[in-house]
Design goal:
The protein is an alpha/beta fold. It folds into two domains: 8-90, Translation factors (Elongation Factor Tu (Ef-tu), domain 3), CATH 2.40.30.10; 96-258, 3-Layer(aba) Sandwich (Rossmann fold). The chain contains six helices and 15 strands. It has helices at 70-75, 113-125, 148-155, 201-213, 246-249, 255-258, and strands at 8-17, 22-28, 38-43, 47-56, 60-66, 83-90, 103-109, 132-139, 159-164, 174-175, 193-198, 221-224, 240-241, 244-245, 252-254. The strands form three sheets. The chain has a seven-stranded mixed sheet, sandwiched between helices. A six-stranded antiparallel beta barrel has the order 1-2-5-4-3-6. Helix 3 (148-155) links the parallel strand 8 (132-139) and strand 9 (159-164). The mean pLDDT is 91. Pfam families: DHODB_Fe-S_bind, NAD_binding_1. It comes from Thermoanaerobacterium butyriciformans. Residues 5-96 form the FAD-binding FR-type domain. This is Anaerobic sulfite reductase subunit B.
């Protein structure tokens, strides 16, 4: 009988610093997840943490990991050639097959950009898969911006609005929360537009309300919950909201369901 809790060993190929506390770890792997799924990542004798998959090919996966606790602190001490232990992928991802030939808007706040980065790169490689892509991405400050090089590449092909909550004296870009810019977003046909919102709970709640004001249908809005998960298979209850196990039914939810889960 297969032990569902047994992780596999994955070699770290490269480590890319994003900010002072966010690093992207590229692991040798042939796992092919759905966009938006997550892995349980562990170090023996230290512990385990749920991490969103930020990108992948048939040769590697990428995990963008913030240094915020015992396990992630230990992960940040590792070097290329070292190993992590992974199990998964878990949960439901974004139904990208249903997004074909649609207008797509992706609104991501902070580390919420990581779970949707693979979708954006998918469309960057295959722009004809959809009609149009708008990207709204916000961070607390300029020093918190993730994937700067990739954001520059996305700007060559898509409409990208980058904003920070608080700029410094060197910041020349947009300032303000993402919700500030949704009313002026060019949406050509609201019935034919898919919206993906990922970020802190309050950001997702109010961004979704702004998109509803723009005429986006509830069933065309998708969100992803970054909620503490432990077992990944619906046994421990750590991620439970009311009667919903986020690790099983999510982390990606349609707004028709998630509106009951958003605090």
């Amino acid at each position: 009988m297969t032990n569902v809790y047994m992780p596999i060993k994955a070699e770290i190929v490269s480590i890319i610093p994003q900010t002072d506390i966010d690093y992207t770890f590229r692991l040798k792997s042939d796992i092919l997840p759905q966009h938006g799924q997550f892995l349980q990542v562990s170090i023996p004798k230290i512990g385990e943490a749920p991490i969103s998959i930020s990108d992948y090919t048939d040769e590697y996966i990428e995990l963008t990991i913030r240094k915020v606790g015992t396990v992630t602190d230990a992960i940040h001490e590792l070097k290329p050639g070292d190993f992590l232990f992974i199990r998964g992928p878990y949960g439901h991802g974004f139904p990208v097959e249903d997004f074909k030939n649609k207008n797509v808007v992706i609104a991501a706040g902070g580390t919420g950009l990581a779970p949707v980065k693979s979708i954006i790169n998918r469309y960057n490689r295959n722009p004809k898969e959809i009609k149009k892509l708008n990207i709204l991405v916000g961070f607390k400050s300029p020093k918190d911006i993730l994937f700067e090089d990739e954001i520059k590449k996305w700007k060559e092909k898509f409409d990208v609005l980058l904003t920070v909550d608080n700029g410094d004296e060197t910041w020349k870009g947009n300032t303000g929360l993402i919700t500030k810019f949704i009313p002026d977003l060019k949406i050509e046909n609201s019935d034919d537009t898919i919206v993906i919102v990922v970020g802190p709970p309050m950001m997702m709640k109010f961004a979704c309300l702004e998109f509803l004001k723009r005429g986006i249908l509830e069933e065309n809005i998708w969100v992803s919950f970054e909620r503490k998960m432990s077992c990944g298979i619906g046994k421990c209850g750590h991620c439970k909201i009311n009667e919903t196990y986020v690790c099983l039914e999510g982390p990606v939810f349609n707004y028709t369901k998630s509106k009951q889960l958003l605090d």
